[in-house]
Design goal:
- With 398 residues, the chain is α/β, with parallel strands linked by helices.
- The chain has three domains: 83 residues, Ubiquitin-like (UB roll) (Roll); 51 residues, no CATH class; 203 residues, TIM Barrel (Alpha-Beta Barrel).
- 31% of the residues lie in helices and 26% in strands.
- The strands form six sheets. It has a five-stranded mixed sheet with strand order 4-3-9-7-8, with helices on one face.
- The longest helix has 23 residues.
- It is elongated, with a radius of gyration of 46 Å.
């Protein structure tokens, strides 16, 4: 029977006992230990999120692992040393931190402010540069001088003048003016105001005017009253109403009344630019002409308010302007008898009466109009349109 155990073999007179590890050099174990230690040293901050020591503009600080460059700077530096300022066009400061953000350098190379700090670094912080606000250029209208002569409800633009135009450059945020340049020189506008002369030759004529229509309910009712009382009137029409009720414009003309322009939208012309006024006015002119076949030659600005630029527009369009001399404030609806009494008691030859056929409930005005006509007829008044009254006035002035 063979031995269960092999006998050691002789190799060159030496016995091979099979223990190879005992022959490994000791330095191999040392090398492994060093590598492990280095790996541990490198990984420890990442694993355990240990604080990191960095130099920030020469100041040694400790920051939590993963802190961004910007966070470290904000926590350990004055804000004024980080951001540039936002300056107005006159170099005054708008915002202490409104300029460019800081730049971060490591070994003279720029780093992203949101980069995370994971090891010791020598960081240089360069303050952001100041920024000057942007500028904007705008054109500004210059309202010309308005020269008035005379008095009365009729206003004739004798010299249209011209609206000026200036170019301004200013700071977009501060509004500080940097420069100005005149593009168009303004020229004075001249208007002549007049009334019916008060003399023994003057007949007792008066003009009833109605603003803000046509209205589908109150304008037909007023037209019925005027027809039944055989009286003429002037209707100052709004383009937006004409657009909706052109048939009523035609009826007004067919029944012998005067139609005139009261703007398209009834916006206060003092708040509009010259071009906005022109657009509003011409839109109403076109709609009224389209509805009636007649292009108005008379106008009344909304609220009776106009600037020199408004009169310049009217002069360029060869329009006569009608104000008023009696205002019973019927739009406040003080009562039918109050409206009637106010007009009748204030009436005088050549007066222009302001009433309304739209813009609210005008039942009181409709009812008062019949009484006004009858009361004034008893005082020998006759009713003319504004244009007829002005022509009568011009005849008396000759």
């Amino acid at each position: 029977m063979k031995d269960l155990y092999l006998r050691p073999r002789k190799l060159g007179g030496r016995i091979d006992r099979g223990n190879h590890w005992s022959k490994r050099p000791f330095f191999l174990y040392a090398a492994i230990a060093i590598v492990c230690a280095a790996a541990t040293a490198f990984a420890a901050p990442h694993i355990f999120r240990l604080p990191v020591t960095v130099s920030l503009n020469g100041q040694t600080i400790s920051v939590p692992y993963g802190t961004t460059f910007m966070e470290a700077a904000r926590d350990h530096m004055d804000t004024g040393d980080l951001y540039g300022r936002l300056l107005a066009v006159d170099d005054s400061t708008i915002d202490e931190q409104g300029g460019a953000p800081p730049d971060f350098l490591v070994r003279d190379r720029s780093r992203n402010p949101e980069s995370a700090i994971r090891r010791s670094l020598d960081i240089a912080v360069v303050r952001g540069v100041d920024k000057v606000e942007d500028t904007v250029t705008e054109e500004v209208e210059v309202t010309p001088e308005l020269i008035r002569t005379g008095s009365g409800p009729f206003r004739h633009v004798t010299v249209s003048g011209r609206v000026g135009l200036t170019e301004r450059t200013l700071g977009e945020l501060s509004g500080i003016e940097l420069s100005t340049r005149q593009l168009v020189e303004p020229r004075p506008v001249e208007i002549e105001l007049s009334r019916v002369p008060q003399s023994s030759e003057a007949s007792s004529y008066i003009a009833l005017t109605f603003d803000d229509g046509p209205h589908p309910e109150f304008t037909p009712a007023l037209l019925d009253v005027l027809r039944e009382e055989n009286a003429r009137a002037t209707f100052f029409l709004l383009g937006v109403q004409v657009e909706q009720h052109p048939d009523l414009v035609r009826r007004i003309v067919e029944e012998g009344h005067q139609i005139a322009n009261h703007s398209y939208s009834h916006r206060d012309h003092r708040e509009l630019s010259f071009e906005e006024q022109r657009e509003d006015f011409l839109k109403a002119q076109d709609l009224i002409e389209e509805a009636s076949g007649i292009r108005p030659t008379w106008v009344r600005p909304p609220y009776g308010m106009a600037t020199a630029s408004t009169y310049s527009l009217y002069g360029q369009e060869d329009m006569m302007v009608a104000h008023w001399s009696i205002d019973p404030v019927d739009w406040r609806r003080p009562g039918t008898e109050v409206i009637r009494t106010r007009v009748v008691e204030r009436a005088y030859p050549g007066a222009v009466v302001l009433l309304h056929d739209a813009g609210g409930n005008r039942n009181q005005t409709v009812a008062a109009t019949r009484g006004i006509i009858r009361d004034l007829r008893e005082k020998d008044y006759s009713f003319l349109t504004v244009e007829q009254l002005y022509e009568h006035s011009a005849t008396l002035r000759r």
